[in-house]
Design goal:
Blueprint lengths: L3 E5 L6 E2 L2 H17 L6 H22 L5 H16 L5 H17 L4 E2 L3 H10 L3 E6 L6 H10 L8 E4 H4 L6 H12 L6 E6 L2 H11 L2 E5 L13 E4 L3 E4 L8 H5 L3
Parallel strand pairs: 1-4, 1-6, 4-5, 6-7, 7-9
Antiparallel strand pairs: 2-3, 8-9
Helix pairs in contact: 1-2, 1-4, 2-3, 3-4, 4-6, 8-9
C-alpha cells in the first residue's frame, strides 16, 4: 500500500507569529517582575527577547544547534537580571516559562494562516499522512500543540515533532527523519514533502533530509511576480505564496 507524507512548519506557515505577540510576551514578562517589586521596563524586556531570539536562530542556521526553551528563557533572565540587579534563580526560569507559554496559548495576537485549515483538510482527504516539524525558542512543543488545538488544526495532524522533544532542531536532518519514521509506520513512503517559511531551516533542511522542499514565501521575496507554485529545483524544490498552494505541488510532482 502506497504512502505519501507531508509535514508542515508551525509558525508563519500554519499559525501567524508577529511582532504583536512578541510585544505581548515582553509586556507580561515585565509585569511578572513588576509584581515582585522590580521596576523592569517593557522596552528592555522586548529588546532582550529579540536579542535572544536572533542568537538562537543564528546558531541553528550556522551549526544546527538546539537551544531548548528553558535555556533560552535563562538567557533572557540573565540579561534582565544584569540590567536590574536581580539574583537569577531556577524558580524565575520556571515561572517565566509558564508566563510565556500561557501568553502564547491564550494570545489574541495568534491566528491561523489563511488557508491553513483547508490545506490540511485536503491532504487528509487525499490520503496523505500529515505531520509537523517545528522548532522552538521560548516555549515548549506542548504549548504549540495547545495553540494548534485552540484553532482546530491539531485534528488534522497524525504526528508532530518539536525540536525540544527530539533534541535536534531544523535544519538538522534528524528532526525530519524522526517525523517521517513515525508517520510511515514501517512502510517506505512514495513521496515526502515538507512545507515551511524559513529558507535555511525548512527549505534547505528538507532538501538535506531527502524530502521535497516547499518554501512558503508569503511576501514574494523569492517568487517576485511568478506564478505559485513555482518549481525552483526540478522535482525537488518549490515556492508558494499561499499555504493553500501547497496542495497543488503533488500535481506537479506527478509529472516528474
Amino acid at each position: 500500500m502506497s504512502i505519501r507524507i507531508v509535514t508542515f512548519d508551525v509558525y508563519n506557515t500554519l499559525i501567524r507569529y508577529t511582532d504583536k505577540l512578541r510585544s505581548e510576551v515582553a509586556s507580561n514578562v515585565a509585569k511578572y517582575f513588576n509584581k515582585l517589586g522590580y521596576e523592569v521596563s517593557y522596552n528592555a524586556v522586548l529588546e532582550f527577547y529579540l536579542a535572544v531570539e536572533r542568537e538562537v536562530k543564528a546558531a541553528r542556521t550556522s551549526s544546527m544547534a538546539l537551544s531548548p526553551p528553558a535555556e533560552n528563557v535563562r538567557q533572557l533572565l540573565m540579561k534582565v537580571a544584569k540590567k536590574y540587579g536581580i539574583r537569577p534563580s531556577d524558580r524565575y526560569i520556571s515561572d517565566l516559562l509558564n508566563v510565556i507559554s500561557d501568553t502564547v496559548i491564550n494570545s489574541v495576537n495568534m491566528s491561523p494562516i489563511e488557508g491553513a485549515s483547508e490545506a490540511l483538510a485536503i491532504f487528509k482527504e487525499e490520503g496523505w499522512r500529515v505531520g509537523l516539524v517545528s522548532n522552538v525558542v521560548f516555549w515548549p512543543g506542548k504549548a504549540s500543540r495547545a495553540v494548534l488545538n485552540r484553532f482546530g488544526l491539531e485534528k488534522y495532524i497524525d504526528y508532530g515533532v518539536f525540536a525540544d522533544e527530539v533534541g535536534y532542531a531544523k535544519p538538522h536532518p534528524y528532526i525530519f527523519d524522526t517525523a517521517v519514521t513515525m508517520l510511515a509506520e514501517g512502510r517506505e513512503p512514495d513521496v515526502v514533502m515538507h512545507v515551511g517559511d524559513n529558507f535555511a531551516e525548512d527549505f534547505a533542511g528538507a532538501l538535506m533530509s531527502g524530502a521535497v522542499a516547499v518554501l512558503y514565501d508569503e511576501e514574494g521575496e523569492y517568487i517576485r511576480g511568478a506564478g505559485s507554485p513555482l518549481e525552483a529545483i526540478k522535482c525537488r524544490g518549490y515556492v508558494i505564496r499561499k499555504t493553500m498552494d501547497s496542495t497543488l505541488v503533488p500535481h506537479m510532482l506527478d509529472k516528474c
